[in-house]
Design a protein that fits this description.
29% of the residues lie in helices and 26% in strands. Strands 1-5-4-3-2-6-8-7 form an 8-stranded mixed beta sheet, with helices on both faces.
Length: 185
């Protein structure tokens, strides 16, 4: 298993509703999560997010995306980076990287899906041919800035000493990129 080097959650979450999100797009997130098992990413920790109108669907904290269910997805209604507050719908708390995914998808209009895979092995295999961010703490504005800076001309990047981040217009684009990256290893 991967050594957890995750900072404590640095944002507050307020729930608009404690019911599970009913977005029809949750099925797509769950399917991609199951695909990680097939792609030999069994040991990797992953975060998957997808734009849903003006909202964001993302996996909950401490959830194995390879075995997700509907209640493991949190719908982010809004995020205030100044107050560091997340408004959410769901039964669980959003993952630590939720603010970063929110900021990426709001800043880049060509990005509606983000997948982050924490895997030292994957990082080491990809860092020679993908741009690498500077080292920043998880879930912070500094992480969002570093990722956006590195994503300027790319959609697939390495997060220094942690893993990779793939961004795309939809989850299928990310899945295709991931298959290409893993196939090239």
């Amino acid at each position: 298993m991967i050594e957890r080097n995750i900072a404590p959650v640095l944002f507050q979450t307020f729930f608009v509703s404690r019911e599970s999100s009913v977005s029809p797009m949750i099925v797509d997130i769950i399917k991609l999560g199951k695909k990680f098992e097939e792609l030999s990413l069994k040991e990797a920790e992953c975060n998957i997010s997808l734009s849903y109108g003006k909202r964001l669907l993302i996996n909950a904290r401490d959830v194995d995306v390879k075995h997700m269910k509907q209640q493991d997805i949190v719908e982010i209604v809004d995020y205030d980076p100044i107050k560091n507050i997340v408004l959410a719908i769901g039964k669980k708390y959003p993952c630590t990287e939720a603010p970063v995914h929110w900021i990426i998808q709001k800043a880049r209009h060509d990005v509606h899906a983000v997948v982050e895979i924490r895997s030292k092995k994957l990082y080491e295999n990809c860092c020679d041919h993908l741009p690498v961010t500077e080292k920043t703490p998880c879930g912070t504005i500094d992480r969002a800035k570093a990722v956006l800076k590195t994503l300027q001309n790319e959609k697939n990047i390495c997060i220094q000493d942690e893993g990779i981040l793939l961004a795309g217009l939809h989850l299928k684009e990310i899945e295709d990129s991931l298959i290409k990256i893993i196939g090239g290893l």
